[in-house]
Amino acid sequence: MRVPLRNRVGPLDDATAARHRRTRLVTGIGERGQARLAAARVLVIGAGGLGSPVLLYLAAAGVGTLGVCDSDVVELSNLQRQLLHGEADVGTPKPASAAAHLGGLNSAVRVEQYPHATRGFLDKHGAEWDVVMDCTDSFTAKYLVADWAAEAGAPLVWGTVVGMGFQLSVFWSRPPTGLPATSLRTLHPRVPEPGSTPTSARAGVLGTVVGQAGTAMATEAVKLITGAGDPLIGRVLVGDAARNRYETLRFAR
Question: 14-250 maps to which CATH number?
């Protein structure tokens, strides 16, 4: 199962093929999968804790175009988990900092910078992307992005982290035949009432756990683009790093 791509999938040049040789050797990816990664357009909403590993690993994987959507600037308190940014970036808008560091990692990747992802922005530009990654850190933003994706039929890779625990899944309201149609509201029907659910602002968040979750989200995006593996559609990965326990639970069939 692979998401449809907006760009034409062309052949790999020699330098790209050599750079990604070990990825091409992975079962289910091959040269065609790597070429699809090079043609893919992925919008990452949030360039903070989750967005950092997502962006770094997608750039390293050779995704051709990454959209970085964030209205915040880098703060010193971000640096314990947002490894895409450094001390010299404090005060810099996160999309600009992200573009600079991603360009240093892989100059072949095109990075497009955007501010806050409003409903208007998504209505106007959301259809330009093959996969959307929800790396936001508030319930308001998560349900805004997820509700748009459900209405638009866009594949959405979603994750959330608090303390030493995380959840992640793939939502797709118009998947290929044989797969369940899902959205964030299939898993969590309502926005939590204020104070009813712990948030990272109150309960904290461990940077290494954000890295675990974000890396797993990047893997889901690679799977959707290349067709390798079995994406988390209709399932949610629940991680408890404090006890090193991880479960994949089915919530839709």
Answer: 3.40.50.720
